[in-house]
Amino acid sequence: MSIMRDLFDTPLLPGLATHEGVLSAAEESMLIAQIDAVELEPFRFQGWTGKRLTRSFGWTYDFDRASFAPSEPLPDWLMPLRERAAAFARLDVASLVQALVIRYDPGAGIGWHRDRPVFEHVVGISLGNEATMRFRRRTPSGFERRSVPLAPRSIYHLSGEARHDWEHSIAPLAVPRWSVTFRSLL
Ligand SMILES: O=C(O)CCC(=O)C(=O)O
Ligand SMILES: [Fe+2]
Questions:
Q1: Ligand 1, atom nearest to 126 Cα
Q2: Which of 15, 41, 71, 96 has fewest C-beta within 10 Å?
Q3: Residue 18: φ, ψ to 5°
């Protein structure tokens, strides 16, 4: 497996940084319990309800109404994680004004997209089980593709080319996964 990764997944995209082992297993369990304790809503898009359950803090983007609005403040339990995300991405912690928590139940994924253009940096923490983040970019001769493993307790930072030029997606898993993503405004 590691040889496969070396052959096919490196070099990572310009603008994509990842690092494993940023949380202890105990911290991971605590975060999962906190996410499960908040009221999560099924992601909705054009009248269609996804299996992905989410809640956003700081700013919310409603896909149904395409509206962008301030929402409830980030909860205290996300603050230490935000510190770590900012340190990893070398950003001012106060610039990470939005947090999105997601639970992917078995069978839930996220389709091809770029994050909303109102946001700039995206820093994500993966919890529970490993997933693969796939990237694609249209070229004259078809899609160029990459895929990057997201280990549980790992962090990633999307900026620059990886953030703006490539779409990303996560295929549904047979096991649950949780994520927390922090974003700065453009
Ligand atoms: O679950 C993740 O790590 C990615 C989520 C994502 O791409 C998004 O919310 O825009
Ligand atoms: Fe995204």
A1: 3
A2: 41
A3: -135, 155
